[in-house]
Amino acid sequence: MNMFKRLIASMILILIPAMTLAAPVELDRVVVIVNDGVILQSDIDSAMKTVKLNVHDNKQALPGTDVLKEQVIDKLIMDKLQSQEAKRIGVRIDDNRLEQAIQSIAAQNNQSQAQLLASVKAKGLSYAEFREQIRTEVAISEARNALVRRRINILPAEVETLAGMLAKETNKDVNYDISHIQLRFNDDQSKSEVEEEANKLVERLKSGEDFSELAITYSKGPKALEGGDWGWMHKEEMPTIFADQVTTQGKGAIIGPFRSGIGFHILKINDVKGLKTVAVTEVNARHILIKTSVILSDEGAKRELYDFIRKIKSGEATFGELARQYSADTGSAANDGELGYQTPDLYVPEFKHQVETLPVGQISEPFETVHGWHIVEVLDRRQEDRTDSAMTNKAYRILFNRKFNEEASAWMQELRASAFIERLDKQDGEEADDAQ
Length: 436
Fold this sequence. Notes:
Elements: H1 2-21, E1 30-34, E2 37-40, H2 41-57, H3 65-88, H4 95-108, H5 113-122, H6 127-149, H7 156-167, E3 173-184, H8 191-206, H9 211-218, E4 229-234, H10 240-243, E5 254-259, E6 263-275, E7 280-290, H11 298-314, H12 319-326, H13 330-333, E8 338-342, H14 349-357, E9 367-369, E10 372-384, H15 388-417, E11 421-423
Antiparallel strand pairs: 1-2, 1-11, 3-4, 3-6, 5-6, 7-8, 7-10, 9-10
Helix pairs in contact: 2-3, 3-6, 6-15, 7-15
């Protein structure tokens, strides 16, 4: 036994110097504190890799690593803030909703789901990582939609005026493919310095430099990492500050810089084309909404809705009776749960999916949105093309999209301004970036 103890002691004496001399291995580190959350170095590395691969696929030029890193960190901060808001209001993306989103991405890329997963793996991203990235993005999108919608107020007179203008238009409409650079006011520069920087960027653009490269490098706008690309938009759907500047300019025009409350902006019209009149599909649906609470869990809400379905199918009660008695959507409950003819785009994604895909007369399975748990029945669908009703719906949609873009930008600015943000990667006494 004594020999065994001496042997153990000898081994410890041998190992201690080796342990002492071994260099510590840093597995990961916190780079930014965002309220009660953090952004890790691994998050930045992963995002940098993804951006570089996307830019390479799109054959775009990249700015220097330091500039790209700052742009990536800025986006990660905004994503973190929005993700925190999604958790605060209880947005949850279940696996079924996640699979729908992945299938939609594959369809948009003209790929099968297997081809999409193969391309994801080819970029060095595991399927599990990809799924969680999409889950986070969908949650952020739904939280933003829910919270920004509350800020939008559209007056009947606004809809009526715009509908009258649309009714007078010819069958062709103008559509613009635009890109955008935003230089934001900050404490480090005066407003005149920001304007001077914007003027220099316009000179560089007019001399032939690539707009998307300059947007990735300098823009603080919402589409910076996409090269400033906003895609195709009706003038009426653009943020007001864009629409006010776009008049008779043609393809390739550089517009700006022009000033708003948050900074200076530069636009480029990549292309212009006329649009053919498109028929509008309107859906008349009815639903029952059950909201969860401390007393009623998700499972309890689903059981209650399944019981409603059973009663309707057995003839014990009608859909309208149950909606009037139990639906938490008091506006539609008074009308037997009926929502009236609407374009599906006005609804949140899960509800939109149901009213677009359900056969007429069929009741859905219980499903969850940011508002609670629903069952829905599609009563009718109709095609409308430039009738008074269609024009009213189109006018409402245009006003909604315009105000949504404006309010979403303002909401994100307010979210950042009220947040606690601390950078831990600054060296030599440089101050961390707090919320502006």
